[in-house]
Specification:
The complex is a heterodimer of chains A (255) and B (325). Helices cover 28% and strands 30% of the residues of chain A. Chain A is α/β, with parallel strands linked by helices and 255 residues long. In chain A, the strands form three sheets. Chain A has a nine-stranded mixed beta sheet with strand order 11-10-9-12-8-1-6-7-13, with helices on both faces. Chain A has a two-stranded antiparallel sheet with strand order 2-5. Chain B folds into two domains: 5-184, HUPs (Rossmann fold), CATH 3.40.50; 202-323, TPP-binding domain (Rossmann fold, 3-Layer(aba) Sandwich). Helices cover 26% and strands 28% of the residues of chain B. Chain B is α/β, with parallel strands linked by helices and 325 residues long. In chain B, the strands form three sheets. A nine-stranded mixed beta sheet of chain B has the order 9-8-7-10-6-1-4-5-11, sandwiched between helices. Chain B has a five-stranded parallel beta sheet with strand order 14-13-15-16-17. A two-stranded antiparallel sheet of chain B has the order 2-3. The chains are: A alpha/beta (255), B alpha/beta (325). The interface between A and B is large, with 89 and 100 residues. Bound molecules: flavin-adenine dinucleotide. Flavin-adenine dinucleotide sits between chains B (137, 212-214, 238-240, 252-257, 269-271, 273, 275-276, 279, 289-292, 295, 308-310) and A (119-120, 180).
């Protein structure tokens, strides 16, 4: 099968998040963007399918700035093609709807049998890209998948419910599957192979329309969460903390 | 219709799921603010009997069809599309769940309804529906407006008490039959795969030593196991640990794992994402160890310490062992 994997770049949650007081939205000036974790799982699942049944894998992303390394990394891992869509306003953040519209435009020629996307992204505020993309392309969608296999021209997605319950859903292709986790953890690739890909591979560049806000609910402002009562913080080094914790555990009747 | 609120009732193996009640509670508040009524939309196979459990709604629309017996994304979407064609409400609520998210975006995109997600609470002010959404792993709250004439909201747990909507009653029930040929659905439910029940049931364990991505490496989990053994508890974990294959799914706490109500929950290198906290409806003492002073888990924990878990675990194990003598 020919598989496309859209990659959404999202704020790196390890970094501090600041609100820009003039816009009331996330301050993107120094924000580090990283590929959405579940999209990395989608790529892994696509590579597993390719290894198992043959076919090709293409990664596709909006050029929100500094995306090349991630695309070359995908190629180093085994992707056959990398596509970057550039357009106005992408660096300021793109809604899931706009992202789905732009991807649908790029993927509508029907050369893909399967699109694997992360089932959600950490910064989604208007639904998830994969589900919207399926609707825009007029093809079926199944999300929360932890495994995808090919079976007689169709695919079977394993959908995850709470508590470890799974359901097998058969899906006609073309289709979009929202990946919750790949069958195996995403593979690592050594830097030398990424460097190699940078030298040999070429990123296909396409022009996209300006990103709009249509379809997304209006966001009027952002803020840090209310800090509730908050935890009682224990100061000191690890040894002192361990000492105090033992005291607390005794008090609480755990010890 | 124009000011009504619809809730997509989810069922799993014949039971109404908890998020459905959370949404009914949310929907009731919105409908009250708008002066509209609350309708529960119940799709399934042989589900009419469940309508009596949806007393929080003013009315229940039941679509009963064998093709809807177990969640089948495309068939459910066809049936919902048929309903929405006849007249859509002001707000349509779906769960931020395995079935809700499949349907919400699909339906919205078909009709051009705007979408908001993941919404925790709602307010109606001056006839407008305002929502609060939790994003960036719980580090940011976004405030927004759900535009009309119809808006789709994907609802996460935490903002409303499901118990409030768990009331019986005799809402008006109407039955609709799908006009679309559900046999033409491009997806088909095949079978369930049951969870492995051979491991301990962490939902019954009072002392949980829970490891997150901050544990760094698989090998470090042994130290956490030793601490758990010293305290007479068990290890549990957040999702990345299970996705890495470092612990089995049976140890997962959260949205896709188990719900636990421990006496002690010691969170080691866990940020406290909304999906993780979904699995912690209550606890007696929650101790969080996380080097990031701003980690969301500190907003709710009883005690916290911003030290390296790898330094703390051996020291704590040693002192626990000493205290036990
Ligand atoms: C549909 C869906 C379902 C999900 N279901 C679940 C679920 O059931 N359960 C679940 O847990 N997640 C679930 N997730 C994933 C969830 O969104 C988060 O990604 C996950 O909970 C994060 O796990 P974490 O806290 O271990 O990792 P992170 O968020 O990466 O946090 C790691 C923390 O460790 C701290 N840290 C790092 N090093 C150290 C150190 N040496 N000492 C002390 N602290 C350190 C960091 O400051 C950070 O706060 C789900 C996601 C989706 C989309």
């Amino acid at each position: 099968m020919n598989i496309a994997v859209p990659i959404k770049f999202v704020p790196d949650l390890v970094e501090e998040m600041e609100i820009d007081s003039s816009t009331g939205k996330l301050d993107r000036t120094f924000m580090r963007l990283v590929p959405n974790e579940l999209d990395e799982h989608a790529l892994e699942q696509a590579l597993i399918l390719k290894e198992r049944h043959g076919g090709t894998v293409a990664v596709i992303t909006l050029d929100t700035g500094d995306v090349d390394e991630a695309l070359f990394t995908a190629v180093a891992k085994g992707a056959d093609r990398a596509i970057k869509i550039a357009g106005e306003g992408y660096a300021e953040g793109v809604t899931s709807h706009a992202c789905a519209d732009l991807l649908a435009e790029a993927l509508k020629d029907g050369s893909f049998d399967l699109i694997l996307a992360g089932t959600q992204a950490v910064d989604d505020l208007d639904g998830s890209v994969g589900a919207l993309l399926a609707a825009k392309l007029g093809i079926p969608y199944v999300g929360y998948a932890t495994k995808v296999v090919e079976a007689g021209g169709k695919v079977v997605a394993t959908k995850e419910y709470p508590g470890g319950l799974l359901a097998e859903i058969e899906v006609s292709t073309p289709a979009v599957i929202g990946i919750q986790a790949a069958e195996k953890p995403p593979r690592y690739v050594v830097t030398s192979l990424v460097m190699d890909a940078m030298k040999k591979a070429k990123i296909d560049e396409a022009e996209g329309a300006a990103a709009g806000l249509e379809g997304a609910a209006e966001i009027t402002g952002m803020r840090p969460p209310e800090a509730g009562k908050g935890a009682e913080m224990i100061d000191g080094d690890a040894n002192a903390v361990a000492e105090k914790l033992v005291g607390i555990l005794k008090e609480k009747g755990v010890l | 219709m124009a000011q009504d609120v619809w809730v997509n009732i989810e069922t799993l193996r014949g039971e109404v799921t908890e998020i459905s009640y959370t949404m009914l509670a949310a929907g009731k508040a919105i409908a009250k603010g708008l002066g509209g009524s609350l309708r529960a939309v119940l799709l399934g196979g042989n589900v009419k009997g469940l309508a009596g459990k949806l007393g929080a709604a003013d009315s229940v629309t039941v679509v009963d069809h064998p093709a809807l017996a177990d969640f089948n994304p495309d068939a459910h979407l066809l049936a919902l599309t048929d309903l929405a064609k006849k007249g859509a409400p002001r707000a349509f609520l779906f769960g931020q769940t395995a079935s809700g998210t499949d349907l919400a975006c699909g339906l919205a995109a078909k009709f051009g309804f705007p979408v908001a997600s993941p919404c925790r609470t709602f307010k109606v002010e001056g006839g407008e529906i305002l929502f609060e959404a939790v994003t960036c792993g719980g580090k940011i709250i976004a405030d927004g407006k759900l535009p009309g004439p119809t808006g789709v909201a994907i609802v996460m747990p935490g903002g409303y008490k499901p118990e409030e909507a768990m009331v019986g009653g005799s809402p008006k029930v109407d039955e609709a039959s799908p006009e679309s040929d559900l046999g033409a659905a491009r997806t088909r439910f095949r079978a369930y795969i049951e969870p492995d029940t051979s491991d301990v049931d962490i939902s019954k364990i009072p002392i949980l030593i829970s490891v997150g991505r901050g544990i760094g490496q698989k090998e470090n989990i042994d130290a956490a196991k030793e601490l758990a053994a010293a305290l007479g508890g068990e290890v549990s974990s957040s999702r990345p640990i299970v996705d890495q294959g470092w612990l089995p799914t049976s140890r997962l706490v959260g949205k896709s794992g188990k719900s636990v109500k421990p006496k002690l929950y010691l969170a080691l290198g866990i940020s406290g994402s909304p999906e993780h906290m979904e699995g912690l409806p209550s606890w007696e003492t929650l101790v969080a160890i996380n080097t990031d002073q701003k980690a969301p888990i500190y907003d709710v924990a009883t005690f916290g310490a911003a030290v390296d878990v790898l330094e703390l675990i051996p020291k704590l194990t040693e002192k626990v062992k000493a205290a036990k003598g």
